[in-house]
Design brief:
7-stranded mixed beta sheet; Rossmann fold; Elongation Factor Tu (Ef-tu), domain 3; 5-stranded antiparallel beta sheet; alpha/beta; 292 residues; 28% strand; 9 helices
């Protein structure tokens, strides 16, 4: 028996999708920062996705994903009423939810907007003042603006091209805020390059105040259980960690981002080839069926 999709929404055309899945037991135990392992069908690979939302009363979990390879493409082709073969979780460590003395800043980039939501909501419910900065290359890639506004005291939007909100990168408003007022914690989830520069902004070495900063390394996970070693990352002092068992939310100030960014692209070409082969195969089948 699979896991039924009860809601599907296209957030960015042909690229980013939201799915709500009925799974009562996982929804009961899900916490901010947790992730799930998926397998679409019997021949599919396992791949991790961070929990974007959960509703214990309805018994549902939500995910938001971007089509980058064959597995996410297959997942995107499923519709409401269809079933996913395997969903395992919740996995990963919970983030620390408590009342902080000063505001918490949540910085979300691109697809990272989704996993930021449950963290911001939980911290807001704990009585914190939440400042959220969301960014994307252009307004067409922004989503969940209204949802994020509901769990924040201040929402700042940035786009690289200036098509919505402030023109520029998310670290610009971050710098302005941390100069003006004390901040207890910064949480950053998004592309590795974005998280790198958020961590550099808050590590105290550039003249800005030093602020504890958590980043999410969910995008580098493969197996999700600590067995494959694909999600290993090194600290600046050379120690080795694994995102799936030591995170995926980790101290951003210890991560060797330069090494991690180099390692993160090692499967990029294979992902592209796998997706192209799958799409070409589908086109060939459709052409054969139309001719017979």
């Amino acid at each position: 028996m699979g896991y039924k999709i009860i809601k599907k929404k296209e957030l960015v055309k042909n690229l980013i999708y939201e799915m709500e899945i009925y799974e009562k037991q996982i929804s009961k135990k899900s916490q901010p920062g947790n992730f799930l392992l998926f397998r679409v069908n019997e021949k599919g690979e396992r791949f991790p996705l961070t929990i974007a939302d959960y509703n214990r009363e309805k018994g549902t979990i939500s995910i938001v994903f971007q089509v980058v390879g064959k597995s996410t493409k297959l997942l995107s082709l499923l519709n409401e009423g269809d079933e996913i073969l395997d969903v395992i979780g919740p996995l990963g460590n919970n983030i620390q939810i408590k009342k902080y003395k000063y505001p918490v800043i949540v910085v979300a980039g691109g697809i990272g907007i989704a996993p930021c939501y449950p963290q911001a909501r939980a911290l807001k419910e704990a009585g914190n003042e939440i400042i959220i900065i969301i960014g994307a290359r252009t307004r067409d890639l922004l989503f969940w603006k209204e949802k994020m506004a509901l769990v924040s005291d201040q929402l700042i939007i940035c786009t690289d091209d200036g098509s919505e909100g402030k023109k520029g990168v998310v670290t610009e408003p971050l710098k302005e805020i941390i100069i003006e007022q004390p901040i207890s914690l910064v949480i950053a989830i998004g592309p590795l390059i974005m998280m790198k520069y958020v961590a550099k902004t808050t590590d105290g070495k550039l003249g800005f105040p030093k602020i504890p900063t958590m980043v999410s390394l969910n995008t580098i996970m493969i197996d999700g259980t600590g067995m494959c070693g694909g999600c290993r990352y090194s600290s600046l002092d050379g120690k080795i960690y694994f995102a799936c068992v030591d995170g995926p939310d980790v101290d951003g100030h210890i991560v060797n981002f330069d090494n991690l960014i180099q390692r993160s692209i090692r499967f990029k070409e294979k992902e592209i080839i796998s997706l192209e082969n799958y799409e070409n195969k589908c086109k060939a089948i459709n052409k054969w069926e139309s001719n017979n």
